Amino acid sequence: MMILVKTLLKMVVIFCHAEILSEASMRPATFDASARKPQHPMKGIKTGRLYSLKKRPTLLYNMTVSDHENKPLRSGFTTGACAAAATKAALQTLLTAKSPSEVEIALPSGRRVSFPVKFISCTNTSAICAVTKDAGDDPDITNGLDILSRVSLDAQAPFGDVQFMAGQGVGRIAIRGHELPLGEAAINPVPRQMIRHAVIEVLTESETRCGVSVTISVPGGEDIARRTLNPRLGIEGGISILGTSGIVVPYSEEAYLDSIRQSIQIAMKNGCSEIVLNSGSKSETFLKTERADLPELAFVHYGNWIGRALEFAKEELLCKQISVGVMLAKATKLAAGNLETSSRQVSVDRRFIADLAKRAGYASGLCEQIAELKLVRGITELIPFGKDEPFYQVLAETCYEVCKKVVGEKPLVFYLISMSGELVKYEEKHA
What we know:
Layout: H1 2-25, E1 51-52, E2 76-77, H2 79-96, E3 102-106, E4 112-116, E5 118-122, E6 126-132, E7 146-154, E8 162-166, E9 172-173, H3 189-206, E10 211-217, H4 221-225, H5 230-233, E11 235-236, E12 247-248, H6 254-269, E13 274-278, H7 281-290, E14 299-301, H8 306-315, E15 321-327, H9 328-335, H10 350-359, H11 364-371, H12 379-382, H13 390-407, E16 412-417, E17 423-427
Parallel strand pairs: 1-4, 8-10, 13-14, 13-15, 15-16
Antiparallel strand pairs: 2-12, 3-4, 5-6, 6-7, 7-10, 9-11, 16-17
Helix pairs in contact: 2-3, 6-8, 9-13, 10-11
């Protein structure tokens, strides 16, 4: 009994501690360039912990639970946070001729975290340090990459001014529609803010009054970028330095949703008036055959977030028509009203599919066979896929109706897609 009571007390303490940290981390940070350290909402809260990559921290209020192992997943840090830490270490090295083994930076929330750093080189005019990206338990494609920062002083620039440049493996903006101008290094606004803040901290502490030139490099970044959305988004030559909070939450949907929204916005700002939403490269290939008149930018992947993608497209005033293509298995979930189709969130309702077949006029015996199928793809063995089959017409129409509730008055076209690339098209008929 005593063991049970102690365990429960520990759980309460951990929960309360996490709640305090979470609440504090949501308050806005206040950056004061004249102070040696930034003011931040964590001031006065005794947490008794410093979050260090070296110690592989567990951020209690950012944890999710693994479906397979039923244990907490470890959060990590963004490329933006790593770039800020590397920049702070390099600037300290340049100004003191001593390279730190670890530096502490402020995240946008005001929380302070520490990073182990690698010394690369130092001359009279510049210094280079690196931080290895640790994404925690998230399957981040940049995990393990070294984020390098080369800094040099600019005596002619105002105090705290930072000139950002793209080194090896960091992309540049090549098309309109981004938050940054054409030709700029693909270092997003929040990472730039974090880097500036780190620079001001070091300059203030050393009583140095000048600007700084910062070049961020990522060895191997150009190869990694080919496996990301950067080429499609008009970012050439490498990866982007990203992050809005500095924290990578395992399996977070935030980054993917941001990429959907950004893809749609960029398409609009580059002359597209129609968006073709699709689940991924396979469905996109099939849809491009049907819509060869559209540029590549018009095709946007939604992954499992059909509803959110439709909402983003609806919000764009320049978007005059939305087309959405859905593979057969996802379509059976969508028709049932599920706008998120992840298998972790939604299972296939075979009875619903059988009822669709009954509604389409198929015999009760066949409908019962559909209800007993183990895999959705088995439907095509019972009812060959084709635009002339009533079942697929009804399925496409039902999916259209679910999507139409999201997009409202915007013109909508729905494409049901088979595994072999056949399409069943449905759009509202006008008199």
